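Try it yourself: sequence plus iron/sulfur cluster, in.
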Amino acid sequence: MDDKCEKNSSFFYSKCVLCPRRCGVDRRVSRGYCASGDVPVVNISMIHKGEEPPISGGGGSGAVFFEGCSLGCPFCQNYKISHRARIHAAGGTAGDPAGKAVTSGELVRIFYDLQEKGADNINLVTPMHFAPDVAAAMELARSGGFDLPFIINCGGYENVETVRLFDGLADIWLPDFKFLDPKVSSALVNVSDYGETAVAAIDEMVRQTGPLVYDDRGLIRRGVIIRHLMMPSCLFDTKKIIDTIWERWGDTVALSLMNQYTPMPQLQSMKGADPRLMRKLDPRHYRAAVDHLLILGKQNVFLQEDASGDEMIPDFI
Ligand code: SF4
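Structure, out:
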């Protein structure tokens, strides 16, 4: 089965257009923007208790963190994992721990290991640049009777065709919806089409899963939770994003409104980083965004209690 997966994957990697950057490189011998090769690299797998309550509120979420990222936000909180390949390609070092290249079969063993540790779901974090192999591993696990829900936890800047590789395999999509205004996304992550791309990708995710479904413990079994991390001095864009979510998908999807933006240490040495990235979020902006949700009447919302905390509060308003 691994051989079959590898053959199938090389079709995608030999001229890679898996993400909207569409580098067109042969990842078996070269590197595109994500600096990733043609074999998935898992940096760490662990029981994660810090996700939204319906994801990690039971025994915890079985998180599998992949190295590399095709969007590559400079402010990333997982910078050493998501940028590791790029840092090394530029001759730098990202420190420990280093990741491990895995076959689809080894990924399946990681899924079972997390299940044995009590995970209520398998949470695949930033897997889209390895989508063919990850989808193959999910299919392999399912065909062997593995029955925990699969979550695809991604940055939102995704090709619809790549999202479709998970059709029938992903139970839960957990995409970011970071920006809408092209000027904001250009300034903060250097892509002008983030907003329109995320909307099309989330349309496909909603089509795949349908509305939210919970089990009798209140854990999510199916559906889409959209995460929006509020950026400093960008309340206007947050409001537009909330409006778009409400008008397009209503309460079919949940919105996790996050206020924990923190200027990360890597920003200090980055030339040309937007000054907004060096600030913290104004708590009044978070309250204004919550008020905006109240006025609209959106019910399926997760809010955070304070700007410094990690804990997600399932406060349906
Ligand atoms: S996945 Fe990587 S190589 Fe492929 S198009 Fe995106 S950035 Fe380029």
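One thing you can check immediately is this: The chain has one domain: 41-313.
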